[in-house]
Amino acid sequence: MSDINEYSVQGMTCSSCASKVSTAVKQVPGVITTDVDLSTGTLRVTGPAVDSSAVRTAITDAGYQVS
Ligand SMILES: [Cu+2]
C-alpha cells in the first residue's frame, strides 16, 4: 500500500463535516495526517500501511458516504 491515499467522500458540506471525518479517520491505526478538500470532497490520508477498508468504515460510521 502506498503512503498517500485519496478517497472521494460524499455529504461533506462545511468545515464541521470535514473535521468530523478527519477526526474519525485519524483513529484508524497508522494514519498520520488527513486533509479534506471540501470543494471536491476529496479526503487525502497519509500514513504507511493504512487499511483502506478501515478508513472507509470510519467515514461511513461518521455518517458520510465514500466511493
Ligand atoms: Cu457540515
Automatic annotation (TrEMBL):
Superkingdom, taxonomy of origin: Bacteria
Entry-linked Pfam families: HMA (PF00403)
Stored InterPro entries: Heavy-metal-associated_CS, HMA_dom, HMA_dom_sf
Domain HMA: 3-67
One GO MF term: metal ion binding
Keywords on record: Metal-binding
Name of the molecule in the record: Heavy-metal-associated domain-containing protein
